[in-house]
Amino acid sequence: MRNTGDIFMNKPAAGAAHAREESESAFDFDPDVYRTLLESTLAIPWRIDWATMTFAYIGPQIEPLLGWPQDSWKTVDDWAARIHEEDRQRVVDFCVSQSMAGVDHEADYRALTRDNGYVWIRDVVHVVRDEKGEVESLVGFMFDITERKKSEQELLDMQRRLEALSFEDGLTGAANRRLFDRQLKTEWKAACRYGTTLSAILIDLDHFKQFNDRYGHIAGDECLIRVAAALGKAGRRPRDVIARFGGEEFVILLPETDAEAALYLAERCREVIGELQIPHESSPCGSMVTASIGVGTTTPTIEASAREFLTGVDRLLYAAKQAGRDRIVSDTI
């Protein structure tokens, strides 16, 4: 390795040379002191010769941090090979383009350790030019930002959990009305744009007030939890939304689903609720919990509205109740 003071102060531009002369005069510059300062900091100093793309210097701090010996950092290929494969192309392309343009820059990436782990690094790079303005070398510092990245990730995870909770029904774990309304609006716009169908299923547990009166509200909550779980296993796809609509009502939003497929899923929902065999001795519909279901399908247009569609599905649910409950009523809207 070359002398640290020579490496970092070699071939400065005219202005930099003048500044160095003033600095040396004012502080009685000593290369050994400079080396000590560089090698005692937690940051890892380095210098790359631009013409040969080789390391002129890298601080000894690199070995305790990553495990790779100081003298193993010979070329930029060694640096690139020790970047996590998921970050490598992005970081290399960015740093090369910025360096060629003569622009100071910084990059965050995962550096591989010798024992197959990784450390988050922030590389801060300064481009050194010669008297002609040509790129002569790159000098910089590597900083270990692993703890900072962990804190950022923890904060991001917390934000995601809070967001998920804001869209989740606190009792059943199904989506809540807020999420349903948002997705209905989104899917309605998408269906208008692409001319696809949209279906919705409204499910109301029959005579649920009588259930609560007979078995108590704790049992009623447990019933809702079990029904929500059963509906979640009835055949939903990734874009489908199963939400608690309010009280003992659930709604299922079905993008790109025709009337036949929606009716099939509604029948399956009615079956899985029946398979739970939850006793309901106070129900005129039978001895077990049952459900009335309305199923509506439409091809959205900009002239119509999602609210009107949902009102139409609610009317179908009401028709199922009026017809004696424990049944399905479906139609196109």
From TrEMBL:
This is diguanylate cyclase. Pfam families: GGDEF (PF00990), PAS_3 (PF08447). Residues 105-157 form the PAC domain. It catalyses: 2 GTP = 3',3'-c-di-GMP + 2 diphosphate. Its EC number is 2.7.7.65. It is an enzyme of class 2 (transferase). Residues 196-333 form the GGDEF domain.
